[in-house]
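Title: Prediction job returns without error message
Component: structure pipeline
Severity: low
Priority: P3
Assignee: unassigned

Description:
Job completed but the reporter wants confirmation the result is attached to the right record. Sequence as submitted:
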Amino acid sequence: MPATRQAPTARLRRLAAELRRLRAESGQTRETIEEKTRINTATLYRIESARVRPQKRTLLALLDLYGVDDEAERERLVGLSRDSRQLDWLQHYEPGLPAAYQTYISFESEANRLQNYESSYIPGLLQTEAYTQEVIRSMRPSETDEGVHQRIKVRRRRQEALHKDAALSLWAVIDEAAIRRTVGGEAVMREQLDHLLKVAESPSVTLQIIPYHAGAHPGMPGAFVVMEFPHDDPALVYTESTSGGLLLEGQADVERYRWIFQRLVAQALSPAETTKLIRSL
């Protein structure tokens, strides 16, 4: 009974946690489940670690074995599996995107709040198209024109989350270096700074700059995003470097980055002071 490989989502993580709980309560091991259902242990491990989405018949077989007889509960779990599919629009861009980035986008699409610190760049959700293009070309000099265009379209789709009725809440803290670095020339940077002033007026966006005079701060090692989810789904942290992206799920890691973000907020200019600084450039 094969499962469907996909980028993880918050709902898939929730389903995996439910299935782990049900198996533990039933007293079953992965080995005994393989004997009774022919769902091999490797597949079950991938399902329980949210690496794959179970096919419906696999999920129903597990629920039967775990003694889940309540129809409402069965439908809830089947619905959770059905709704855990990867974003339809993202599948079109899969071949050109690193797996870690796809995973991040999937989680970001389900988050209701982001705390984003950037040390060198304007946050992706707040970038203009021209700024994005310059960043991609500088980071990926061998990228084809089509590849650059595809990545820009992905960035634009991600930015739509800030304009939905139930808009994503973004709290962005940016090092002053990012707004002073002239990416793409004066015209491109002027447009980007004007865009920051515009989005800073949105009720769903909080923007703060850490000024040079703040001195050393705990964000200096690099950028990160803390993603918060509805339905009490556990938070995640995403960090990125030249070697790729990394998702951190451990509670200790999440709490550490929450603490770092609050320290950064305390050292940053207020939103009003931030817009004043941007206007002065």
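Comment from assignee: result matches the submitted record. The longest helix spans residues 10-26.
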